[in-house]
Design a protein that fits this description.
- There is one protein chain.
- The protein is of the alpha+beta class and 170 residues long.
- It has a domain of 92 residues: Alpha-Beta Plaits, CATH 3.30.70.60.
- 35% of the residues lie in helices and 27% in strands.
- Strands 2-3-1-4 form a four-stranded antiparallel sheet, covered by helices on one side.
- The longest helix is centred in the middle third of the chain and has 20 residues.
- The termini are far apart.
Length: 170
């Protein structure tokens, strides 16, 4: 069996009152359970304003139903809802499942982040005088060191690379 989610908007002019809505929902649940399916969750959103008018009505009664059923049952339910008077719109979808693999991968990412944080080296201590540590000075020397041989960066095979112009020269 597959999991499905149905959203149906009922016409409040034709399906007015809790009793009429209940009868429509009983009909929908009957189709699902009649073929061996199972209703997992039923959520009545109630009467809400539509984004645009449908058939001259500006409001609809929203219901969201989650169920498990065979694909032929979902197709039959869609067919019945299409021809049922009182149904403004309906949509049956298979929800994107949060798979077991996705949950395991997410937990692994959390563990890897915690491991990286635990194995990170401790920050270097500042010099007592408030200056940089020796390791900080070494990093600066490496970062700003001149290339060996005095050549400009990018000079290969004897090429002459012009130096960048300064503001005074421009």
């Amino acid at each position: 069996m597959r999991q499905y989610e149905l959203m149906v908007i009922l016409d409040p002019r034709k399906v007015d009152g809790d009793e009429a809505v209940g009868q429509m929902l009983d009909k929908i649940q009957g189709i699902i359970t009649g073929d061996g399916g199972r209703v997992v969750n039923l959520d009545r959103w109630g009467r809400r304003r539509l984004a645009y008018e449908i058939g001259g009505t500006a409001e609809g009664y929203y219901v969201v139903l989650q169920f498990e059923a065979e694909p032929k049952t979902a197709a039959e339910l869609a067919r019945v809802l299409r021809i049922t008077e009182g149904v403004l719109r309906h949509l049956i979808v298979r929800p994107y499942p949060v798979t077991r693999r996705a949950r395991i991968a997410q937990a692994a990412r959390r563990r890897a982040g915690a491991t990286r944080a635990a194995s990170a080296p401790a920050p270097a201590a500042k010099d007592v005088r408030g200056g940089e540590t020796a390791s900080d000075q070494d990093d600066h020397e490496v970062a700003f060191a001149e290339p060996e041989g005095g050549e400009a960066p990018g000079a290969e095979n004897g090429e002459v690379v012009p130096e960048p112009a300064t503001e005074e020269q421009a």
